[in-house]
User: Fold this.
Amino acid sequence: MRFLVMVKASPESESAGLQPSAAELAEMGKFNERLMEDGRIVLVEGLTASSEGVRVVFEGKAEPKVIDGPFTETKELVAGFWVLNGDSLEDVVALMKQAPNPEAQGGVMEIRAIAE
Assistant:
């Protein structure tokens, strides 16, 4: 099975120009290397801040609206993601509990099975 692991955004990840430290990047790199060696990673990417994005909003039959970022509700945004191979939701949860947490104040990941 494949799973999408979404790393929720934070005020820090939404701050223009604020990047993880070299040590944080190295730690995450080691974690991702292990996942790659285990054949778990299908895709892993970080996203730019919402200030560089847009939303397309559909309302009935009206012409879709395009809304420019930034978007204020960081808890509703995604900062990065993995697409992983896993045996079950519980398997991927156990795996992601081992991920480094670069956010000193905490972070949130949402894990969902990809419909196949």
